[in-house]
Design a protein that fits this description.
By secondary structure, the chain is an all-alpha fold. The protein has a single domain, classed as Phosphate transport system protein phou homolog 2, domain 2 (Methane Monooxygenase Hydroxylase, Chain G, domain 1), CATH 1.20.58. It has nine helices and no strands. α2 packs antiparallel against α4 (46-73), α4 (46-73) runs antiparallel to α5 (84-111) and α6 (117-141) packs antiparallel against α8. The radius of gyration is 19 Å and the shape is globular.
Length: 227
């Protein structure tokens, strides 16, 4: 590879995965703000919710800028142990985690959505389950360097496969939480404003989608292991 003074390209020269690992870390940092955000929403502290939403938006913007740099600077000529297109697919999936967190916070703040008392504990559990899934995707991706160094074999590939199995289990647990929250909402929806019910279902879907995006990162890594 031709020597370069570009710090971003130097990161790729050391490891094709380091910028991707930094990106998913930023995406997870963004998504993790949903925990205090939901606490502020449940407390109907809209000033605090607005502050956290702004932080989420800023982190999402930083993740988006990192994604664009990766797309622009991932060299086509560099020798990569995995296809360049696969790396770009993973980055795109990672970016959806931050995007979805921004969508959730923006919608809830914009409408000052209230979470009915009977749903609050279930929503807390659901959000944390979704974030556990995205956190596991980060852990798995951080193992890629060791995986490459091992030549995609031996103990390291078994370790990564265990991480991905755990990711699938966490996503499954998130699905169970989503079904329970939907069931709880269905039980009380006739007592609520129909428009608010519609948007609550939308938020539930978006939280579930955040976990789905993280699981897709794991699925793509699973494909890399199988190559």
């Amino acid at each position: 590879m031709v020597p370069t003074n570009n710090p971003f390209l130097q990161m790729f020269a050391k490891s094709p995965f380091k910028p991707m690992q930094d990106h998913i870390h930023k995406a997870q940092e963004c998504a993790a703000e949903l925990v205090p955000f939901f606490e502020a929403v449940i407390a109907e502290n809209w000033e605090q919710a607005a502050e956290i939403q702004q932080k989420i938006a800023e982190l999402e913007g930083q993740a988006d800028a990192m994604k664009k740099k990766i797309r622009q600077h991932l060299p086509k000529s560099i020798f990569l142990p995995v296809p360049r297109t696969d790396l770009l697919d993973i980055v795109r999936m990672q970016d959806k985690i931050a995007n979805r967190a921004k969508d959730i916070a923006g919608l809830m703040l914009g409408r000052q959505m209230k979470v009915p008392a009977s749903l609050q504990d279930g929503m807390r559990l659901f959000v944390r389950a979704a974030l556990s899934t995205s956190e596991q995707a980060l852990v798995a991706l951080n193992e890629l360097d060791e995986l490459i160094n091992s030549g995609f074999g031996g103990h390291e590939i078994n370790a990564v496969e265990r991480l991905l199995d755990e990711l699938d289990k966490l996503e499954h647990e998130t699905d169970k939480c989503e079904r329970q929250v939907r069931s709880n909402l269905f039980a009380i929806e006739k007592t609520l404003d129909p428009v608010e019910v519609m948007f609550l279902y939308q938020i539930i879907s978006q939280i579930g989608d955040l976990a789905d995006r993280a699981q897709q990162v794991g699925s793509r890594l699973q494909l890399l292991l199988a190559r």
